[in-house]
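May I ask for a sample protein chain and its fold as tokens?
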Amino acid sequence: MDTAQPITLSSLSTFEFPRIHTFPPLYTKQPNQTIQQQQLESWTNIILSYCEFYKITSLTSEGQPRHSQLFSKAQFNLFPLLFENKSINRHVNADFKTTILTHLIHTKKAEYINLKRPELGIFIYWRSVVDWGNILYDYISNTGQKGTVMTLYELTKGGAGGGEIGASTEEDGLGEDNDNYNYTDYNNNNNNDDDDENLLPSELKNMDELLLIKVIQEYLVKQGKAQVLLNEYNQIGGVKIV
């Protein structure tokens, strides 16, 4: 059983922004298209580095952290501000922030969590869907678990839990078209061992289940490397890597 203590902000160094984060014009949308493109690329690099540092895999539509593999939502307010620099009294306004996030999407560094409900936020791809999928596939292959039915809980927390483990509501934006997943942990009698050799790698620990579903359905299933098992409510009951 993994009994490691939660990581705290005090146990990690604070993210060090690049020098351009102190450059006042960075925070105002530039009218010249060439300069604005350079500005957007600077913001892209800052956001990806910041999110990778804190293992943030999704942002809200306002550009705030939505999910981190290392920290709880209660700790997000302790992160240094991403779109504001109080030392120079500058911040990115809502309109420019939307432009920046849209640029991330257009350059495939981000994607709407639910295209029908963009207000729910975006996935941030400092690691690509393909790379996530390969990490998951290698973990299952290397631990001899191919062909075993795993729950979403087991693939993000390790071991077999019980009961509801982070139910998805309409806030998650998975409403119609078989997208309303409740993320219920279904007990799997075949996976009750907590052997060290089967412990989740850090890359998968506390992974956002919405992102996990995207990785499985849009990469592993399409590659013929995974099968999704649905329950009678058309919700994901298990995943089998093959």
